[in-house]
Amino acid sequence: MNMQTTPDEMLTVKEPAMEEIKTDVLVIGAGSGGLSFAAGASQMGADVTLLEGHKMGGDCLNFGCVPSKALIAAGKQAQAMRTGQKFGVTPVMPEVSYAEAKQHVHKVIETIAPVDSQERFEGFGVRVIREYGRFVDKDTVEAGAYRIKARRVVIATGSSPFVPPIPGLDDVPYETNETIFDLMEQPAHLIVVGGGPIGMEMAQAHVRLGCKVTVIEGGKALGKDDPEMAEVVLKRLRAEGVEIIEGAQAERVSGAAGAVTVHTSQGDYSGTHLLMAVGRKANIDRLNLDAAGIKHDRAIRVGADLRTTNKKVYAIGDVAGGFQFTHVAGYHGATVIRPILFGLPAKARTDHIPWATYTEPELAQVGLTEAQAIKAHGKHAVEVLRFPYHENDRAIAEGKTEGLIKVMVVKGRPVGASIAGEKAGELIGLWALVLANKLKIGAVAAMVAPYPTLGEISKRAAGQYYVPRLFENETVKRVVRFVQKVLP
């Protein structure tokens, strides 16, 4: 018996065998959409496997919605100390510890994290594997040491900050939403490239925490919102000290840590720190989508039913393109429960999806803006109902009188609502309900709102629909005068 080993045999290393898993549904990504689906499907009896190669809870919990709102809250506390004079409270300059404000952010994340934890979802019966996944064929995904074959696959990998290929940017340190919340050193002067919701929220939070802030935007700041409503917010931010440069395309970046310059078509702007906030890109690079026959460009192509070109695979949330909001991902996750678990048809709508920018004042929208409604239905078919915050008693009492609401109505039915003002993100929920259920304006006009609340703003706006029909109508007046004469 020959016990010698040849050199070729010595060089041959056997790959460990991959563990085979068969599952009803494989969910790729443990953000809002993936977790919503996984929890519901598992509790309804499906065998669910969930892959997550990074952090449970995804972008929203760890780098987006949650930390940004926590930092905004810290900024509000600082701002309240500066602005008490009108209430008889002597204003003082707050002593801000930027590092402690960031510690507050991380405490908030830690408090919410158990809701999205691996342990909680394993408690629901979900098999959780902490690996990235890649397709090897139409219904098989490899993830680490696992080879997973699924009857259905839900891709919920979300999105990441898009960093444009600006010359010089690779040689200069910069922050994105994935790194800014770990920055403990207070920026003396923060340059924000991008005047969308993320950029404006971070700009106001930082200026309130004692930083100098310059926002550079290639187009119009908050350009996706109604211009009249956006101006309410921008006026406040400028008044608080945020420098907003519009129509200034970033052409080149230079400098080093602590001294960064953004060269634009309108001039050069220098600061100590740079935040890139120009948009998002779908996380599709790791997935090997072509192997599964899934068509894609910058995002995965889906139909109204959220199904991809591979009939066994669905895509939900940011990775499917369209609205990039956490609540949309959750809505998508609930939507695909119906076809995947019960074989029943379901389609995702977009006309009732609200969104909000959490500056102060807030900016919120659902459905069509005024311009969009006029374009879709014609100028003469659209009635725009308006009501200002400065006529609301609660807003007056709290000194929050900036802003207004606009409701776009076609044939008695709201098709959109725009709100700029205090708690706009809370108030827009009523109008999302109206649009989701295709209610008429009378449903809101008939509502009895508690007094005094900001909620009365919505009711008063709805009431404007009846002003020309009841109070400015000569026929109504003649009928009333006649009835008053004949009544005993």
TrEMBL record:
List UniProt keywords, sorted A-Z.
Disulfide bond, FAD, Flavoprotein, NADP, Oxidoreductase, Redox-active center
Q: Which cofactor does it need?
A: FAD
Q: Which residues form the FAD/NAD(P)-binding domain?
A: 24-333
InterPro entries referenced in this protein's UniProt entry, alphabetically: FAD/NAD-bd_sf (IPR036188), FAD/NAD-binding_dom (IPR023753), FAD/NAD-linked_Rdtase_dimer_sf (IPR016156), Pyr_nuc-diS_OxRdtase (IPR001100), Pyr_nucl-diS_OxRdtase_dimer (IPR004099), Pyr_OxRdtase_I_AS (IPR012999)
**A Pfam family matched in the record:** Pyr_redox_dim
Q: Which residues are in the Pyridine nucleotide-disulphide oxidoreductase dimerisation domain?
A: 353-461
Q: What family does the entry list? A: Belongs to the class-I pyridine nucleotide-disulfide oxidoreductase family.
Q: What is this protein called?
A: Dihydrolipoamide dehydrogenase
Annotated source species: Jannaschia pagri
Q: What is the lineage of its organism?
A: Bacteria, Pseudomonadati, Pseudomonadota, Alphaproteobacteria, Rhodobacterales
